[in-house]
C-alpha cells in the first residue's frame, strides 16, 4: 500500500530505558512488511524524567502509538485519556494507541501470556493450580491472565510482602478463582499444573534461578514451567525443570504475542504470530 504524496508514513515507538537491545523493532518491521503497510517502528531511550514529554509527543497525525517497557509501564497510566480493562486491572500499560489526538492505554502482556501458554500446550482446566514466581508488573499481568482463565494462583516472591499485596488486590467474593501469597516452602507444588516465572531472575545470567530445584521435584511430571525470561533461550530454571520431567518454554512466545496484539490495535491488521516469531528466529521446532 502506498500513501498520497506528502503524507508521513505511520510511526510507532518503543519508550524504554535502556532501549538499545530491544527485539521489538525487528518484530514490528516484519509485521509492517507482511501486512504490506507503510510504517516505521523506532526504539527510543526515554529516561523517566522525559516520559511525560515523550507520551505527549504521540498526539500528532501519523503516530499510531507506542510500546512501553521498563521502567515506564506503571508511570504512564496518569498520562493517558483512557485505559482498557486489562490495563486498569493490571495497573500497567505496555501499549498506547493514538487516535485523533486521544491516547488509549492497553496491556497486551496479559493476553500475550494467555496465548503463549495455549501455544505451549497448556490446557486451562478450570480451577487448576498455578504458581507465579515474582511480584512486579509482569507477575501482575500473569495473575490477571490466569484468573481470567479461572485458574487458582499462588504468588511466591523473594519479598513476600509484595506477593501479599498482589493477592490482596484480587480477593473477590464468590469468584471462580483464588489468589494466595505464600513462601516457597508452603506453596502447593504437588498439585501445580503450571509454574510461571514472572521474576527477572535468570535474565542475562544463565546461572541464576528464582527457585530451588527441590521445589521443581515436587511438581507432577508433565506440568509446564513457563519462563517469561527469554535471554538465554534456555534458562537454568528451564534446564532444571526439564531434568525433573517437566515441560519448559521460554518467554519468546509471550513477547511475540504481546507484539502481535499491539500491532493489531494500531493497524487493524491480524498478522500471524509466526511472522513475529520468525523475526525473533524463534519459531518452535514443532512448527517446522
Ligand atoms: N516475555 C515477555 O514478553 C515479557 C513481558 C514482560 C516482562 N517479561 C520479563 O519478566 C521479568 C519481570 O519483569 P517485571 O517488569 O515484573 O520486573 P520487576 O517489576 O523489576 O520485578 C522483578 C521481580 O523479580 C524478582 N526478582 C529479581 N531478582 C530476583 C532473584 N535473583 N531471585 C528471585 N526473585 C528475583 C523481584 O523480587 P523482589 O520483589 O523481592 O525485588 C520482583 O518480584 C523480566 O525478566 C522481564 O524481562 C517478559
Structure characterization notes:
It is an enzyme of class 1 (oxidoreductase). This is Shikimate dehydrogenase (NADP(+)). The strands form two sheets. This protein has a six-stranded mixed sheet. Strands 9-8-7-10-11-12 form a six-stranded parallel sheet, sandwiched between helices. α4 crosses α5. The mean pLDDT is 94. By secondary structure, the chain is of the alpha/beta class. The two termini are 30 Å apart. β10, α7 and β11 form a beta-alpha-beta unit. The protein folds into two domains: 129 residues, Leucine Dehydrogenase, chain A, domain 1 (Rossmann fold); 140 residues, Rossmann fold, CATH 3.40.50. The site of NADP nicotinamide-adenine-dinucleotide phosphate (NAP) has 26 residues, from α5 and α9.
Topology readout:
Layout: E1 11-16, H1 24-34, E2 40-45, H2 51-56, E3 63-68, E4 82-83, H3 85-90, E5 95-99, E6 102-106, H4 109-119, E7 129-133, H5 137-148, E8 152-156, H6 160-169, E9 179-181, E10 192-197, H7 213-216, E11 224-227, H8 236-243, E12 247-249, H9 252-267, H10 273-279
Parallel strand pairs: 1-2, 1-3, 4-6, 7-8, 7-10, 8-9, 10-11, 11-12
Antiparallel strand pairs: 3-5, 5-6
Helix pairs in contact: 1-9, 1-10, 4-5, 4-9, 9-10
Enzyme class: oxidoreductase
InterPro entries: Aminoacid_DH-like_N_sf, NAD(P)-bd_dom_sf, SDH_C, Shikimate_DH, Shikimate_DH-bd_N, Shikimate_DH_fam, Shikm_DH/Glu-tRNA_Rdtase
Pathway: Metabolic intermediate biosynthesis; chorismate biosynthesis; chorismate from D-erythrose 4-phosphate and phosphoenolpyruvate: step 4/7
